[in-house]
Write a structure and sequence with these properties.
Elements: E1 2-3, E2 8-13, E3 22-26, E4 30-31, H1 38-44, E5 48-54, H2 56-65, E6 76-80, H3 89-106, E7 112-117, H4 121-124, H5 128-139, E8 144-149, H6 159-168, E9 182-186, H7 191-204, E10 209-212, E11 227-231, H8 237-245, E12 249-250, H9 258-272, H10 277-302, E13 306-309, H11 316-327, E14 330-336, E15 356-361, H12 363-373, E16 377-380, H13 382-390, E17 395-397, H14 400-403, H15 412-430
Parallel strand pairs: 3-15, 5-6, 5-7, 7-8, 9-10, 9-11, 11-12, 13-14, 13-16, 14-15, 16-17
Antiparallel strand pairs: 1-4, 2-3
The structure holds iron/sulfur cluster.
Iron/sulfur cluster binds next to helix 2.
Length: 431
């Protein structure tokens, strides 16, 4: 858990013209760090290993966040750098080299190794980019070694994925000169969701379609000026920028949460491929209709319920849009760690006028606002959930939204269920 000191007092500011007012806060924040992303990324890239270069605290975080993996051969570990001064840096590099050599010997199946930086001062002194370049020379071409930072000083928990994917972009091969345009879906999705989207894109005649990250690091997709890309997650700013620098073009859209979001997201790709409205409806109509019907049973349970989001995953704004528009929930406050106006340009105007949008955090003030509002459900990080439950509020852990398949038509009802379940549990406790 990462707790940051105040930088400046909160202030109210006007958002973009069509968006609600934004309250910008730069006080203490309570969020997980970017190391947490390893928990879902190591499942997604099946031949990658994540070596955290960090402290015992980092090792504890990763072990407890990924505790469910005890029966599997792990593909993450922590190289613990004990207290060293600058004079000990040569030793630290030697130690890192020894750890990597042992890992390579024991795990020949690993094709991609990420050295993941953290925030202890001993680690900050280490130049992991240089270490990755040095080690790459030793192990190339059988093992590719990259680095990124999951440090809590620089990242909230979903930004670990952004940093990881951004580190992959320079490794993507150039486009084949004779190829036409291709679609790249950017952001880690559960395999089941990826397969569903692949089928829908096929039915639409949109393709070839590739996913970043790929399931195997040896299948890195090409990127270049004929690449059109869709963001599957709203927290991938650095990755998007790196792709644009490679000449790829972002297809702006809602994020694929709920029926409306999924339809708009697919439509953005369909439009880029010149698919007619009739062909679009024919391809997605059945899945969309099924999804609308599945959501229906949650309208009574969730309609009119007031929801408060603490800033954590950066999924908050698309989630609030889905819950307000498709289930008639009332987002009282929607907090987000960072507000990327460009990537959220389609989302922001769809939030209700009554919603307070807040960026950053000043946790004590936000807790006061939350208690004053007494919402029916609060979405927050693990560190805030228990204290809020103890005061009688019902909570939903935001991290669950990253571990659960929630994107696409088939998952819209599952997403609604994630919010209905804590309310049902609370109602039972109160009987
Ligand atoms: S990277 Fe920093 S915030 Fe994250 S677990 Fe390690 S010490 Fe804690």
């Amino acid at each position: 858990m990462n707790s940051m000191a105040p930088l400046e007092a909160g202030r109210a500011a006007q958002g973009c013209s069509s968006a609600p007012t934004v309250l910008r806060q730069r006080g203490q924040r309570e969020v997980f760090c970017g190391l947490t992303g390893i928990v879902w990324l190591h499942r997604k890239i099946q031949d990658a290993f994540f070596l955290v270069v960090g402290s015992r605290t980092c090792a504890h975080l990763i072990q407890s966040a990924a505790g469910v993996m005890i029966f599997a051969e792990p593909r993450f570990a922590t190289a613990i750098m004990d207290e060293r001064d600058l004079a000990g840096l040569a030793d630290a590099n030697d130690e890192l080299d020894r750890i990597v050599a042992r890992l390579v010997e024991r795990r020949p199946d690993i094709k991609l190794l990420f050295l993941v930086g953290s925030c202890p001062s001993e680690v900050i002194k280490l130049d992991l980019a240089r270490a990755a370049a040095r080690l790459s020379k030793v192990y190339s071409p059988t093992l590719r070694i990259l680095n990124y930072s999951g440090s809590g000083i620089e990242t909230t928990f979903t930004q670990g994925e952004d940093a990881c994917l951004a580190s992959l972009v320079p490794e993507l091969p150039a486009e084949d000169g004779a190829a036409g345009q291709s679609l790249l879906v950017v952001g880690a999705l559960a395999d089941v969701v990826e397969d569903q989207f692949r089928r829908l894109f096929n039915a639409l005649g949109v393709g070839p379609v590739h996913f970043l990250p790929p399931r195997r690091s040896t299948d890195l997709p090409a990127a270049g000026p004929r690449t059109r890309f869709l963001l599957a997650q709203p927290f991938l700013n650095d990755t998007a920028r790196a792709l644009e620098e490679r000449g790829a073009t972002l297809l702006p859209a809602l994020f694929p949460l709920g029926v409306e979001g999924t339809t708009a997201w697919l439509k953005a790709a369909a439009d880029a491929w010149g698919v007619s409205d009739a062909a679009f409806d024919a391809a997605v109509g059945a899945a969309r209709t099924r999804s609308i019907a599945a959501l229906d049973k949650y309208k009574d349970q969730l309609g009119g319920k007031r929801i408060f989001f603490f800033p954590d995953s950066q999924l908050e704004i698309p989630l609030a849009r889905f819950l307000a528009r498709e289930l008639a929930m009332q987002p009282v406050e929607v907090g987000t760690p960072y507000l990327h106006q460009q990537h959220l340009a389609h989302e922001l105007p769809l939030l209700p006028d009554t919603t307070l949008l807040s960026e950053g955090q000043d946790v004590e003030r936000q807790l006061d606002r939350c208690h004053a509002e007494t919402p029916d459900i609060v979405v927050c990080g693990l560190g805030l959930a228990n204290p809020l439950e103890a005061t009688g509020l019902t909570t939903k852990w935001s991290i669950e939204l990253l571990f659960t398949p929630i994107q696409g038509y088939e998952q819209a009802a599952d997403l609604a269920e994630l919010f209905a379940r804590p309310l049902v549990r609370r109602a039972r406790l109160e009987v």
